[in-house]
Amino acid sequence: MERTLIIVKPDAVQRGLIGEIIHRFERRGLRIIGMKFIQMSRELAEKHYGVHVGKPFYEGLVNYIISGPVVVMALEGTNAITAARNTMGATRCSDAAAGTIRGDFGLEIGRNLVHGSDSVENGVKEVSFFFSEDELVAWGRDVDGWIFE
Ligand code: DAT
Ligand code: MG
Predict the structure, then answer these.
(1) Which of 107, 109, 111 to mutate to test the pocket of ligand 1 (most atoms within 8 A of CB)?
(2) By the 8 A CB rule, do 76 and 6 touch?
(3) Overall average pLDDT of the 106-127 stretch
(4) Which of 37, 38, 75, 141 has the CA that lies 20 to 30 A from 116?
(5) Structural domains of the chain in order of their starting residue, each with its CATH number
């Protein structure tokens, strides 16, 4: 079972797309194990985006992610990393396939609506940045056997 950290970014929150975005992951079969509505501190944003320090877009990226409230979610499922990233679409919205979140709702790379972890290792790490273990709910759904093999 993999874990991924999903962030409904400030542009998506401002545009009233929280429900639409959560719905797509929920419908995919991923199991929600943590969720909260927060405004990120600069400190937490810099930790989360630490891998991008020094890149030309880093400053703008941090300012964008702290510019308004976000929804952070920890999702669990078989192949959760790849599945969630395919549901999100390509980083550059204009390249994202229609039917994906970014392909259906975005135009620009700096307003790309959603974050999802990019590896199993980063999924575990990023979930731990935003959730303590006691904020995560270990639960099963009656339908799990019809979604997970
Ligand atoms: P992703 O969010 O698809 O995992 P990433 O981890 O490579 O993409 O980059 C993190 C965010 O940084 C991305 O969502 C948007 C921004 N970004 C990435 N590359 C960029 C670029 N070349 N110009 C401007 N912003 C960029
Ligand atoms: Mg990334």
Answers:
(1) 109
(2) no
(3) 98
(4) 141
(5) 2-147 (3.30.70.141)
